[in-house]
Amino acid sequence: MRRGVFFSLRSLLAKRERPESSLGKTLWFGLVVFSLAACGKKEAVIANVGPLSITQADFQKALSEVDLGYQNYVMTPNGRRQFLDILIRDKLELAAAQASKVSQSPYYLKEASRIKEEEKLRLHEALKYLLIQDWEKNLRDTRITSVSENEAKSYWKRHPYEVVFSQILVSSPKEAETLLKKVRRGANFARLAREHSLDSGSAIKGGKMPSALYGEIIPELQDLIFQMRVGELSGPIKTKFGYHVIRKDSQRKVSFEKYKDRFIQILEKQKLDDYLQSLQKKFPVEIIDEQFK
Q1: DSSP 291
Q2: Is residue 33 over pLDDT 90?
Q3: Can you list the positions of beta strands (E) in 115-241?
Q4: 3-state SS of the chain: helix, strand, coil percent to 5?
Q5: How much is the pTM?
Q6: Cα–Cα distances in angstroms (integers) from residue 250 to residues 14, 178, 179, 180, in the given order
Q7: Are residues 235 and 180 in contact, defined by beta-carbon separation less than 8 angstroms?
Q8: Residue ranges of domains in the chain, CATH in brackets
């Protein structure tokens, strides 16, 4: 490793952006050509550091993780060698660490075990997510939950409005009633929501909820909110989340073309919910823990 190279690979890591300029595209193409030319053999080795090797694949992976400007510099002979020196430094540290007693220290072994378990869990969750996503896609492909444009348009004709409402969510009907009375006497709704609401996501926004179409609000609140007048207050309303004080902030008619995808998603979810309900005959649900019944 040459003197004067004190950078580590970690200090260069940054999210890579694909170049857009013609010069950037040319340099990117050069990197690809350089990579392909050097990878004629499987796992071609660039350098050895004791028992460890730096392969062309190692080089390209590390290069893909650094800033674009530095990638362009690595296209030059000096840049290429300097980047290799950085990889050599990291491999040298790794080789020394692996050969030391640190690799058998209680702390290292404990942390390594923890990381392996976390990675195992992340892999399990990722595979589960992938399986469910592919299963849902298959339901759409086989027309079990697919929604046609005509179905979506018919739904829009029945429910053409988008609403915005604010809420204060609390744990008891008495507290909800007290807050409702305060608002009706002129207290600031947003301030009370920030101070009392259990829904932290909306509380920091003064209770304001995201705009919603019919089908995007929980059933216990949905019909009520769409029937309310703009500016009207209501509550306490009990749901599985607690007790709500509601204020309707706005309502407007939306165009089908602009909101078509959202209407399709609403209907797909409804069809999926119905299908999942039917599956409970095949996969019975039994709540074991008494506190959840």
Answers
A1: G
A2: no
A3: 161-170, 212-213, 233-239
A4: 60, 15, 25
A5: 0.65
A6: 44, 24, 21, 19
A7: yes
A8: 9-100 (no CATH), 160-267 (3.10.50.40)
